[in-house]
Specification:
Layout lengths: L2 H5 L12 E2 L4 E3 L5 E3 L5 E3 L12 H12 L4 H12 L5 E5 L5 H6 L7 E6 L2 H8 L5 E5 L13 E7 L5 H7 E12 L5 H5 L10 H9 L3 E14 L2 H10 L2 H5 L4 H4 L5 E13 L1
Parallel strand pairs: 4-7, 5-6, 5-8, 6-7, 8-9
Antiparallel strand pairs: 1-2, 2-3, 9-11, 10-11
Helix pairs in contact: 2-9
């Protein structure tokens, strides 16, 4: 990351003019708005009040443990295959988390760059340290994105909220929006035990409907399998996701009697920008 490569993604959240390096660890626009770049190498462009909070360090630690064990590796491989097949030069990961999927999807080449965006500064910090060609941005997906328009080849959106109008604006014509959502059977055993939040029954239908105005559905792949998890794996799985916002991270005592067979099931959608 450099101030120059970081600035090439961004516009001012106040006046929407392009941002550029303006001395030291600063980015600024022509109207004099200035923003500090964190010493860890990312910029926080959040403005106003927010309804949601980003993932905590505890949640991200749980995610590192669970994903590091390889339980979602088939999904990561599928994401990598789709993204690299686009031969992208600019990739945006909205809701980047620890960078698990973005790091795998980033093709080789000094001219290929990625931007990890998340509401959590801790998540963005971890993502940019996972690869030296990833820049970092703290921003709210529900607000107008502080991103320049039309320059992104692929948007990666894995288990994260979406802003269809803004995704359409920042993607290049015919660019790819890759969205991963859980199927209705995902973590079924944990939900039946009251340890995971419910999943919207018509999530896939709602997704395609919400994106129909600006995107054409090009591909749909389904991944599902049953995995045998230890109590500590289950605790990490619960602690890394939205369930932890509602009930707190689970410990081994909470899941000791839980069945070790857990369904993991994903829908992977490829949408083409109209």
């Amino acid at each position: 990351m450099s101030l120059q490569t970081l600035s090439e993604w961004l516009r001012c959240p106040n006046c929407l003019l392009p941002l550029h390096p303006s001395g030291g660890l600063l980015l600024g626009c022509e109207r004099g708005h200035s923003f500090d770049v964190n010493k860890r190498g990312f910029v926080n462009l959040l403005t106003g009040q927010r309804k949601f909070i980003g993932d905590s360090a505890t949640m991200l630690d749980a995610r590192d443990r669970f994903l590091g064990a390889g339980w979602f590796e088939p999904l990561r491989n599928a994401v990598r295959t789709i993204v690299t097949g686009e031969f992208p030069r600019r990739i945006l990961d909205v809701g980047c988390g620890t960078g698990y999927y973005l790091g795998a999807a980033l093709p080789p080449g000094d001219d290929v760059r990625a931007l990890g965006m998340d509401l959590s500064p801790t998540a963005v910090g971890r993502t940019i340290h996972s690869h030296n060609r990833i820049d970092g941005l703290v921003a709210d997906v529900w607000s107008p994105l502080p991103l320049l328009g039309g320059g992104i080849d692929v948007i990666l959106n894995v288990f994260a909220p979406r802003n269809p109008a803004e995704f359409h604006r920042v993607l290049r014509p015919n660019g790819l929006l890759l969205v991963v959502v859980p199927q209705s059977t995902h973590l079924r055993q944990l939900r039946e035990s009251g340890l995971a939040v419910e999943i919207q029954a018509d999530k896939a239908v709602h997704l395609t409907t919400s994106l129909a105005a600006g995107f054409s559905l090009e591909s749909h792949e389904r991944l599902n399998r049953t995995v045998q998890l230890s109590p500590s794996d289950v605790a990490s799985l619960i602690g890394m996701g939205p369930s932890s916002h509602h009930s707190g991270a689970a410990g081994d005592d909470d899941v000791a009697d839980l069945a070790r067979d857990v369904t993991v099931a994903f829908d992977i959608f490829g949408f083409r920008r109209r």
